[in-house]
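Exercise 7. Given the components listed, write out the predicted structure of the assembled complex. Treat all entries as one system.
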Amino acid sequence: DTGVSQDPRHKITKRGQNVTFRCDPISEHNRLYWYRQTLGQGPEFLTYFQNEAQLEKSRLLSDRFSAERPKGSFSTLEIQRTEQGDSAMYLCASSLEAGREQFFGPGTRLTVL
Amino acid sequence: AQSVTQLGSHVSVSEGALVLLRCNYSSSVPPYLFWYVQYPNQGLQLLLKYTSAATLVKGINGFEAEFKKSETSFHLTKPSAHMSDAAEYFCAVNSGGYQKVTFGTGTKLQVIP
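Answer.
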């Protein structure tokens, strides 16, 4: 059981740079979710994939954010022209069925200087 | 629409004492409800889930929660706190048909020796 993995675990970048995060879900899970968590808050939904199709995006996901899941397996989340307000923990989760429990990865902590 | 309210951002209990973490939800349809635990710099781990079966749900590490429709509550309890229970706990709701899970703002549990 490999669980959900995320890479990198930590990323420090300068304002204006682009960053990309990767998530590998549990292999048999066809649903994949991205969340953002800031200090003192619960995770906030960003976007959701069923297989390779991106089916829902939060209004939190500005034009600078893009997510892909090209082959229905791993997913990437890219943030362009990072801002200090993007500093947060980015969590990935996967699930087998809609409405069921989601299994979370360890997260990628982004710090924008 | 769906939402979760967790009463008390910080709860302190003595080791061996009862743990009670409160969660109230709002959902226009019968919900699925979850409790997750998060240790520092880690992802979220599922403690237990309610999916319209038994109203008293038992989870891992001795935790349980009771779904009370009349009170729209899903409080988390544990009869006797251990030092290892110190963490942040999140209540979450998924209304039938929605793909995303909405999390509460979390409750940090401190266990005093």
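Discussion: Chain A touches chain B through 28 residues (CB under 8 Å). Chain A has a mean pLDDT of 92.
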